[in-house]
Amino acid sequence: MSAGIEEAASLRRSDFRIDLRLARRLARLFVPFWTRAAAWPYWIGMALILAETALTTALALRSSFALKDMTNGLVNRDGALFRDGFLAYALLFAVAHALPGLAGILGAWITRAWRIWLTTRVLGRYLGGRVYYDIARGGALDNPDQRIQDSLSTVVAQFLRLPAVVLGALGGVAAGSAVLGGIDGSLAAAVAALSLAQAVATYLGYVPLVRLRYLAAAAAGDLRHGLARIGAHAEAIAFHGGEAAERVRIAAAVDAAVRRDLAVTLFRRLVTDVPPLAFGLVWLVLPYLILAPRLFAGEIDVGTLTQGMAVATSVAGATGALLGVLAPLSGVAPHAVRVAQLVEHADALAARAEGPEGRIAREHDPDRVAFDDLRLETPGGERRLVQHLTLTLGPGESLLIAGETGIGKSSLLRAMAGLWTRGGGRVTLPSAEECLFLPQRPYVTAADLRAQLLYPRGRDVPDADLLAALAAVRLPDLAADHGGLGAEKDWGRILSLGEQQRLAFARILITRPRLVLLDEATSAVDLATEEHLYRLLAATGVRFVSVGHRAGLAAHHGRVLTLLAGGGWTLSTPGPC
Predict the structure, then answer these.
(1) Domain ranges in the chain?
(2) Less packed terminus of the chain by CB within 10 Å, N or C?
(3) Which CATH superfamily includes the segment(s) 3-353?
(4) Cα distance from N-terminal residue to C-terminal residue, the chain
(5) CA nearest neighbour of 217 among 121, 331, 111, 140
(6) What is the DSSP pairing of strand 384-393 with strand 398-402?
(7) What percent of the chain is predicted at pLDDT more than 70?
């Protein structure tokens, strides 16, 4: 099974119910938008939509009386009565069908504002507290991009329709039942019983759709993720000649997505459409069965029979609309669950971060870099990587972290950056704004060359300084060759890994941080260029900590920290070259 479907299979059954837990999740996503001080224009818009719904319901019921007059005019050959009834019916029909268009415009306006606000809010939780990193590292949730983009927009678009649908349906049922009660009490009672029976049958049909739609959304996300991976790893796939393997993998994802969609479609058609069809037949014959004997007995006229049929049909439509709320709910529920899971995961991380037990303490001091009795474990506690490390870097000092592959060198950098926090002791270093991290594969943004150099904290820097930094890292013609600093290109594809690493070193010269963390940051450049880059780095006077395997790296550092198995370590000073 794919990751998304495996996750869905492991969820609690309560995640797929239309119940109070779903209501609480929806409320948490939506109530803050409507309770803001700035929400008053949208309250006015929603009030107008609900007023349109109520007016449309009233017009529909009033048209039943016009229809009664038309029918009696035809039966009694009364031209004036027919004409007046026809004109009233036509006017009511035209107005009732024009109003929903205006409400649709208001709805689109509210939906746009609501979606932007909610996306910003959820994205803030996703990027805050490094939730995105925890999800990417542990795979706790599938396809967060799909949850933020598709699931969130689906929830907003469908949920906005519910108040108007519920109000209109309740108003239609109540007003229609009152009119039917005036025509025939037994018909009103029969309509009420039929509405209740249809509600039960429809609910039982729609509830299982929540789980089916969740699985379908997860399968669609897995397919999109699989296709994106081909683009992201195109060169590696081409080198390996892996097209056949990718074709098999994508074909399996397509098959899963299509099967899940087919299951949703078949269940909806074969199960949830049966009650409306069966009850529709009963709604059709019920007015005749009850009112026709009274017509034959002379107790009512043909117009009243026609009105009773029209109102019963209207009540049937209102009942269907009210029960139809279950349809968007069954569609909203899986998407709401997927968005809520993202927010709840952020909550869990925030709560975990507040607990001091078993956590590495962090302090920010612009003039100090130190480990005080540091004890570092893997996030799940499976391994102890470092035990009782105490070390201080003075101004301008540098440290190389060495050791066997997989011993935990990069993990120590993660602890310094606050990404891995399980363990004990204390890490003291400058604030995140005063540090710069250079990974083996630098992060290249989707922006122009100027933005690449100023990442991650863009500020105003003269172009001459930017070009000088490029020249210093031996990329003197990069801007000129690609259309200047304002050129927007796919830099991750255009630049080689060695060029990207040199670009990252240019960021150091521009941002002038107090501390630089380098994780195999020169692995793709030749030895001469590596030596040049480290000389540039040392000339800035900044403290820096490196991870690397090349023997020559030690010569560019004042001390070497060698990590040993079981959490041990040694500290040494490299000898002269």
Answers:
(1) 3-353, 361-572
(2) C
(3) ABC transporter type 1, transmembrane domain (1.20.1560.10)
(4) 55
(5) 331
(6) unpaired
(7) 80
Can you say whether the dihedral through the CA atoms of 381, 382, 388, 389 is positive or negative? negative
Other Cβ atoms closer than 10 A to 352:
15
CA 436 to each of CA 31, 226, 439, 532, 545: distance values in angstroms, whole numbers, following the listed order: 39, 32, 10, 19, 11
Cα–Cα distances (Å) from 103 to 45, 163, 165, 379, 452, in that order, read 9, 13, 12, 52, 46
CATH of 361-572, one of 3.40.50.300, 3.90.550.60, 3.40.50.720, 3.30.565.10: 3.40.50.300
**pLDDT classification of 505: cutoffs 50, 70, 90:** very high
Q: Which amino acid belongs to residue 192?
A: A
Distances (CA, A) of 340 to 34, 151, 332: 18, 10, 12
d(CA 249, CA 226): 8
Report the distance separating Cα 231 and Cα 247, nearest Å. 13
Query: 330 exposed, middle or buried (CB, 10 Å; 0-12, 13-18, 19+)?
Result: buried
Which pLDDT score, from 0 to 100, does residue 381 have?
Answer: 77
63-121 pLDDT per residue, tens: 767 777 777 777 777 778 778 777 877 787 777 777 767 777 888 888 888 888 888 88
Greater model confidence, 544 or 55? 544
In the block, residue with structure tokens 């080198």 = 239
